[in-house]
Each structure stands twice: as C-alpha cells, then as structure tokens.
Amino acid sequence: MSLETAIRLTEILLSIALIQQSLEHLSGLRDEIPHYLCRLGLSVLLLAGVQTQWVSLLLFVNALLLLRRFQGPYNGGSDLLSILLITALAAVHFVPEGRWQEYVLGYLGLQVVFSYFKSGWSKVIHRDWRTGQALVDVFEFSVYPASEATRRWASRPRLLCAAGWAVILLELLFPLALLSPAALTIFLVLAMSFHVANFVLFGFNRFVWVWAASYPSLIWLEARLDLLG
Amino acid sequence: MRRTRLEVGCWCGAWVVSFPGVLKLLLPALFPSWRFFDVIGPSPRVEICLLEHPGDDRTGWRALRSRPLRLGVFDRLRAFFWNARWNETLHLANCAERFVQGQTEHCTREIRRRVRSDLRAAGDGAVPAPFFCFRLVFVSRHEGMIRRDVAFVSPPFETFDPLDS
Description:
The complex is a heterodimer of chains A (about 230) and B (about 160).
Chain A: H1 3-25, H2 33-48, H3 52-70, H4 77-94, H5 99-124, H6 127-131, H7 133-141, H8 148-151, H9 157-173, H10 181-202, H11 205-225
Helix pairs in contact in A: 1-2, 1-4, 1-11, 2-3, 3-4, 4-5, 4-11, 5-9, 5-11, 7-9, 10-11
Chain B: H1 2-18, H2 22-30, E1 43-51, E2 62-63, H3 73-81, H4 84-100, H5 104-122, E3 131-142, E4 145-153, E5 157-158
Antiparallel strand pairs in B: 1-2, 1-3, 3-4, 3-5
Helix pairs in contact in B: 4-5
C-alpha cells in the first residue's frame, strides 16, 4: 500500500468514525452540540476529500476544543485514538512530503501496535488477570456489561480464565503482525473480532470504528518495514 | 508551498502550547498509556434521590440509569451505529472516577447537568420533583466479598435550572 493510499484510507475510515460519534452527540447537552456539529461537517468534507489539508487542521482544533470542554477524553480509549488519528492526519499534511510523512504515519502505526501490546503487558503482570479473577470481576460488578444478562458470564470462571488468556496472548503477540502480510491479516482479523466481542458484551461500539480507522497505517507500516524481505 | 505548510505547522504547534492547559490534556492522547482494564478497581455508580424540599431526608436512593435485562439482535445492531445513551453512561462512570481523583468541580457539573437532563426527559419536560441530589457509590471486591462504599453525596440541586442545564 502506498503512503498516499494509506493516508486517504485513514481519512475515509476516520471520517466515518467521527460522523458516527458526532451523530450520537447531537442528542447531548446544549454546549456540546455546536462542537459536534462542526465535527460532523468537517468529517463529511474529509470523507469527500475536499481540502483535506485544512479540514484535518480544523478537526485538530475541534479536538482541542472538545478536550477542553470535557477536561479530557469523553469516552476513554476510543477518544484517545481518535485524537491521535486526527493529530497524525493534520501533521502529515503540514510536514514536508516524503520521509517526514512516513515518520508520522509510522508513529501512528507503532502506536496501534503498542495499543495492543502494552494493554496485554499491563494485564499479564497482574495476578488477577493470570488467574481469571479480573474478568470475573469485570462481568460481576464493573460498570461495563451492556445488559444484566451479560453479567451471568461471571458464573463461568473457567471459560473467562481461558478467554482472558486468549486476549492476553493476542495482545502480547500482536507485534508479530509486522512480520509479514499473512501474519498481519491473521492478527487484524483476530483483533477486529476482539473489538466486535467487546462491543457485543460491553457496548463499546466506538472502539470498533476508530480502531478500524487506524489499520491502514498498520498495513502501510508492515509493507514499508518489510521485515522478512 | 512546502515552506508555507511547514510554517503553518509550526504556527499550530505554537498555538497549541500557548492554549492554557490544553497541552496537558493533549499529551496523553499523543503518548497514550494503553492500559485497558489492567486493574479492576472499584466500579462507580451514580445514584439519585428526589426531594420535595432541599432539607428533606435523603432516602429512596436509586440508580440513575439501570441497564436493560437483555439486548436482542436488533438492539445490538442499532447500538453499533447509535449508542449515545450507553456511551453517556460510560462517560458518567468516567466522571465519577475522575471526581475521586480530584477533578471535582468539572465532574460534579457534568453529572449534575446530565441528571437534570435525564429527569426532564423522564417527566416529558415536567420535572418529577423540584430538587434532587446524587451520590457516587463505588462497588469493589474486598476479601472475596462485594462491597459498596459511598464516596460522595452532593448537596441538593434544583431540578430545573435554565442557567445550568
């Protein structure tokens, strides 16, 4: 995948993710609606490929204003990655063409790899995750299960222990995705399945959209590194 | 053209740095910790109590938002594209966590305004009670048992306040 294609694909997927987020906020509090109306309009322009350089910059300003409005990200990790993607897109349009653009997209791709690896590492060093207790607690009393029926999974500790280890291994081994196109395909399919499962169980719909938007940078990075020749 | 782009980039960078407090908020997004669910800490709940008068006894606490018993395929399909209320519920939980970490003023305001919005929506525009207060309850596992600790009880607020909604 060429650098230009990766940037354009990121723009398209990110704009879809931002449109989805913005529409959800139109039913929010009065003072957040203007911010998201702006974001909605800019995202439509980005999707259409109109003045992407300036639209990306305005989206970055909009992201800063939203950070100030909510005194941080509105919705945790999905918003953090949205901001990172917006910043990377704004930067990639304002750095000199060529190598600097590669550095920006490479940084974004590496952060996506880290998002999995560091998440796996921070789990495996905790005993509760290794024993499966952490996932039992997530289902039993955390705020995340999207329905009362989902809480019943807490009564299946062995299954949750196995699921917890599957998640930890997927996250820890994710850097291997950079080894070859085949490995990348397998890891992206597994990772997207993981995000979809998180949506079904915990209602994290925004994660699916935003992480999908980060994948073109990863596909480009794998091809650019070409580690196994 | 290339120089102009770089100049604009530098100008933006300088603007960001000069924006009060925004750099502190932006840095965690540019250098994220990516520690999702590393420790399952005390889990926040927002509960409310409706009052006829500000001085009434605060009894009859109830969850601000209860989760559905189950979600069907259609509910989930719709939530994939439109999950505004659930994402706001997660935001409220996030506010409760940030409250106990010291971000009290912003988070109290954020929770208070969203409680007001919920109460107005529940009453079809009419308020169900003239005053309310909310409390933050944290649920955790302690020595194998699930326990609930009240971390904060708000003062009474007017349910209808056009200047703060």
